[in-house]
Amino acid sequence: MMWIIAAVVVVLVVAIILRKFALTSNYGKGDKSDVQFDDHDHHHKGLTISGSSACDYGEVGVRMKIRSYTLEELRGATRDFGVQIGVGATCRVYLAELGDGKFGAVKRIMNERGGSRRVFLDEISLLLKVSHPNLVSLLGFCLDREEQLLVLEYVPKRSLFERMHTSEGQKAGILSWESRLSIGLDIAKALHYLHSQAHQPIIHRDVKSSNILLLDDNHAKLADFGLSKLHGPLKPTTIKGSFGYIDTTYLNTGLVSPKSDVYSFGVVVLELITGLKSSQGPTTLAEWTHPWRMNHRNDIDLMAAMLLDPKLHGKAHFGQLRVLVELTNWALNDRWEARPDMGQIVDTLCTCVQMQPSTCLN
């Protein structure tokens, strides 16, 4: 086992050295994924999606140079891991001063919290393959004295979860309807890139509001590739993810696909609509809202009264709400083949955002 890990580390170091010369080119603009989805119908329950995108999918960014750090460098940059800005299931995240007025976020994998060298190396490997304006970028890493540290792009604002679901986050005011649409579109673009435009198709496997980091109230980036995996032949795998977001098909079969991310994204859209967390006690938000989403689609006033975040005081676009509820129903379908792919979701959201302003629901 140790020789395998050593070999992977050597390959990574060599790859990073080579990338210092090559990664300023348009890395990541490889051939389109040849993954085929079962559902190619662009018409769904009243939603019509054009064949071409109604807006820019987001340009694949130029990959920044990756460097390796010593433990002493990162201890100094983080003030001996003194300013914690986040925590995950297997890690803690610290603010780092990288010089020249630049900041980074240092993700420290914790063995005592279930972190492993294999997961750490897998995350580096995946982050080296991607570059998109709506994905948090890898700046560097450290493998030193049993420490496993990732140096990531620093996103200064709170996560979507904190912004929407904590009193501290709401001190800045309630996130507007327009902001919620814009954030949803940014994350849809990120997932479309991972599934269909990255050099190799990637399943994120942990799409949730706490992994959506806000640049401001209108723009967001998807973070945390700790559970991500390359999309390949379907075979049962250990179920990973967070309660309320996990695809029901994945839960029942152990099989994961890009359509599993689609399901999780549907839950995020429900959070944006309702202002509620992904779980309501022992019940998931998808289950809790199901009767209203499915049975009152033709009564927009009743649907809004039951589903729309009351903190918005009705300040939401009538037509956009209807489209988002239909999109959520589509994404949360129990059958993979009946769900849209992320390209279809991007098209739908672009069309939705471009709807002309009209009277609010109140």
From TrEMBL:
Q: Which UniProt keywords apply?
A: ATP-binding, Cell membrane, Kinase, Membrane, Nucleotide-binding, Receptor, Serine/threonine-protein kinase, Transferase, Transmembrane, Transmembrane helix
Q: Which reaction does it catalyse?
A: L-threonyl-[protein] + ATP = O-phospho-L-threonyl-[protein] + ADP + H(+); L-seryl-[protein] + ATP = O-phospho-L-seryl-[protein] + ADP + H(+)
Can you name the source organism?
Morus notabilis
The enzyme's E.C. designation:
2.7.11.1
What this protein is called in its record is non-specific serine/threonine protein kinase
State its location(s): Cell membrane
**What is this enzyme's class at the first EC digit?**
transferase
Q: Which GO terms describe its cellular component?
A: plasma membrane
SMART domains attached here? S_TKc
Please give the chief subcellular localization of this protein. membrane
The record's listing under PANTHER family reads: PROLINE-RICH RECEPTOR-LIKE PROTEIN KINASE PERK4, PROTEIN KINASE DOMAIN-CONTAINING PROTEIN
Domain (Protein kinase) ranges: 79-359
What GO MF terms are annotated? ATP binding; protein serine/threonine kinase activity
Entry-linked Gene3D superfamilies: Phosphorylase Kinase, domain 1 (3.30.200.20), Transferase(Phosphotransferase) domain 1 (1.10.510.10)
Question: Is Phosphoprotein included in the keywords of this UniProt record?
Answer: no
What is the membrane topology listed in the Swiss-Prot or TrEMBL record? Single-pass membrane protein
